[in-house]
Specification:
This protein has one domain. Helices cover 74% and strands 0% of the residues. The protein has nine helices and no strands. Helix 5 packs across helix 9 and helix 6 packs antiparallel against helix 9. The longest helix has 30 residues. It starts with a helix and ends with a helix. The relative contact order is 0.17.
Length: 241
Amino acid sequence: MRLRESAVVFLVITLLGAACFYLVRPGLERAGWPSYPAYLASLSLAFVVMLAWAAVSYRAERQPPTLEAFLARCRLGPIRRRVVRWGLALGVVMFLLTAVSSPLLSRAISAGWLPLPAGTPDYLDPTRQQSLALLKEQFVSQGVLPWIPVILALNIAAEEIFWRGMVFPRQELQHGRRTFVVHGLIWAFSHLFQYWMLPPILVGSLALAWMVQRTRSTWVGVVGHLVNNGLPILLMLLLSP
């Protein structure tokens, strides 16, 4: 995958994320959806598109139409202990990056250096941090708590199968040892729809891409993604009353 094709993938996914966040989400809210269901449903649409794109790309490569062959193509073979350890470390680092950077981002936003778009939900605004108890209360009242594991699994499956499973190996054929830089930058900036979170995302993306290239296993991203995205939910369930 040459840079031109990578740029097309980046542009499509970035525009898709922006459309879901700035058009679909507000549209669902105007139709009467509560804030959290509207947000999760809009992002789920992007995840479904990525999974469909991965499936179409796989068929275009004329690979064997079996689940085993598909998983092998996506570097989702047998899980090795070393890969799990790398993934756990990655997830903790990504989680800590977000936690440490949040006060700095809050100051930048409050000072006007990093303005947020109008209508940004409180739960995505670093200056309006909510307690775990309040988050859980809102999840329960808006009926999304049972759907969180499903959407988390969809998120991880879509991003890891599409980006690390399908895109990364093709980029590696073109860029060799520099692939983790190309891939990490493209994946990070595909989150431009939440541009105020780019600093921790950028560092975490480069670290993830480097580990994926080093281990040649998408499971690193799966485990890291699970820890980073799932740990806040687990803490919310365990620590809040």
